[in-house]
Amino acid sequence: MPAETADPAEVDWSPMTLDGATASLGCELDYANAGDGEPLKAFDREALREAMAPCAERGVFRLRFKGRVTQDFTRLMQRLAAVADELEIDKRVLDLDSSGGMVEEAIRAGDVIAESRWTIWVREGAACHSACVFLLAGGDTRLIGGRVGIHRIIRMSSSASTRAELNRELRAVYGRVRDYLERNGAAVAVADLMMAVPNRSLRILTPEELKLYGLDGVNPAQDDLDRLRLMRKCGQDFVARRDSYIRAFDATCNAPDRDVEAMTACGLDLRGRFGFPDAQCPSESPLSEFDLVGEMTAAAGIASRLRILGVPTGAPRRAAEPAPASPGPRDVRNPTAQGGDTPARPSEASADDSEAAASTDGADRAEIPAPTPR
């Protein structure tokens, strides 16, 4: 299904920069061989259109963002979504490496991400800490190979002098956080857990917690919408096989000790077992992006195909021949999540935001280990 069209009237096209952050854009999802694309140096409509135009034929682009979440990051996401709609680029990947930032802006950006159908990556060696976690909640699909950490929100411009005053200020912020998590299918328990972690510390979420809190894999809220749509379009058998495939992928491929390439190769191997690509709905089949770009990437070899995973399905420009339908397993064990054990990334900018209402930063924090199950 094509992404929802962003209303150009709502997009802020005023001059902007990305102080202390970098953003690169490319049409290749194979970051290991093709890199991260070209750095974005201008952010007006014409410049972004020029940068994204080569991706229109393929129907997919990837934004590699390294930095903190600020108002300009939100503006960038709005602009990219608007231009992608104009160019009919339906498959969008946000490739994140962020130590945190402003909570209110992370919520705003997360809503933009949710409305415009993005897949989010946190690659091996990358991090998504503090406010960055709210971006994960907005994604359609999340693929996490790096580390995700949380801690207590602090209001940098607060004038509170007592705990009671500070708690009153933060209660309003946490109310918005909980509402945001709930409407995007993530557990509101994330907000409660953040409250218990001192701002000077960092609590790394385990792979099991990422899955439990709805921050990894398929977004539960979006999945509900997709199931209803696919039931009408493709039928009950398709939905049942798709559900079985997702469970099998989570149980078999989505493991903590696997990198992105290994997880993707495993997912590709699973596809035929469940009768995908589907004869009636090839474009809605899992990993249909391989069918879209298969001919284009053939010259680059299998490596360029192995690292593509989790892009939301859209209207493809070509589809592979459907595989023979085959029933999925009757009983697939419950999914598990994957994660990374890579070092935390240093902060890209100062943690002090004089104009920020509330901000977080995941750099230079003492890490609090997850509780050991008894």
Could you describe the 3D structure shown?
Helices cover 38% and strands 14% of the residues. The chain has a 7-stranded mixed β-sheet. It has a 4-stranded mixed β-sheet with strand order 7-9-10-13. Strands 5-12 form a two-stranded antiparallel sheet. The chain is built from 13 helices and 13 strands. The longest helix has 21 residues, at 163-183. The chain has 2 domains: 8-218 and 340-354, 2-enoyl-CoA Hydratase, Chain A, domain 1, CATH 3.90.226; 220-306, no CATH class. The protein is globular, with a radius of gyration of 20 Å.
Looking at this protein, list some descriptive labels:
2-enoyl-CoA Hydratase, Chain A, domain 1; 374 residues; 13 strands; seven-stranded mixed sheet; single chain; disordered N terminus
What's the CATH class of the largest domain, please?
Alpha Beta
- Low-pLDDT residue intervals, each spanning 5 or more residues: 1-9, 293-357
Integer tally of domains:
2
List the helices and strands in order.
EHEHEHEEHEEHEEHHEHEHHHHHEE
CATH topology of the largest domain: 2-enoyl-CoA Hydratase, Chain A, domain 1
Q: Provide the spatial order of strands within the biggest beta sheet.
A: 2-1-3-4-6-8-11
Strand content: 5-15%
- What is the approximate shape? globular
* Annotated CATH homologous superfamily of the largest domain: 2-enoyl-CoA Hydratase, Chain A, domain 1
Q: Which class best fits the helix and strand makeup?
A: alpha/beta
Mean pLDDT score, rounded? Answer: 79
Number of strands: 13
Distance between the termini: 45 Å
- Rg over CA atoms, rounded to whole Å, is 20 Å
